[in-house]
Specification:
single chain, mainly alpha, Na+/H+ antiporter like fold
Length: 327
Amino acid sequence: MEVFCLLFFVNWGYLVEITAVIHSISLIAILIILGAFVAKSYPFNKDTRQMFITLITNVAMPAIILSSIFSVEINRDTLRVLLFIFVLSIMINLAGLLLGYLATLIFKRHSEKKIEIAILSAFGNTGFIGIPLSAVLFGPEGALYAAIFDAGVDFTIWTVGVYLLQDDKKFSFNLIKNLINIPIVAIVLGLIIASLGINMPLIVTDLADMLAAFAVPLAMFFIGAVVSDFQRGDVKISYFEVTTPIFIKLILLPFIVIFFLYDTNLSRLVTDIVIIQSMMPALTLSSVLFAKYSRDDKLGAFITILSTFASLLVIPLILYIINHILI
């Protein structure tokens, strides 16, 4: 009887958790659809696109980072965990780059899009989707861990990623300058304030909380607008170029991460955040990066859109598997 009761409560707890995940993913899907409908009745031009990107990256993301940091007690052990997540993020991104490049080298050796496929296989939408989703599922501490993972993604993009995208393969001052962006500054500044034990005024914390609430709707509306603006005839891609980065990013890479994190001494929260961030859909700004370095920006946009919708089904499925493996 005791065993039966224990199983009942374990299964009930899991049912509540997976219901919360499905609920969050469903909300994201609805917001994306709403964004697509709004964009149909309002011109989504270059200026509108830039306004969305600026609001999300320079206002909403820093706010959700600071709001998370102000809500979590930061001590030496916490800083050690954050540094570990940052390094682990870099390693996972490098693994994704390697998997994408090797897959193209083995199965489509003469492809001219090896770098694009590698980039799309490695870098996920850990900022636009990952941080808000982690905040919804795991609260402020989860959002903080997700933000640190996203910082690792940014670091890898603007160093190794940009290096690979360049034809002449050289590092420059501009590359280093790109690493200094407002979300990164928010992470560093917030951690310094928290480490020194400085209590921020209530108006600052309330403002951060209010602006953080905009992160999810803005990000999802932006993705919906991109979907609405995209025309399938704009890009010619092969079946291999579609399936390879999506399979690696949403399935293969997360399962590799699960394999290496399984039965470790990491807390359950850290493990869940790292796995969730590792299976985020392709980077939203990949098309912008590709265009900047004369790569196939249409491929980047198409894979971003397709992987985003695929993730709405894949993320709950993999979380279901995680619970059966790690519980």
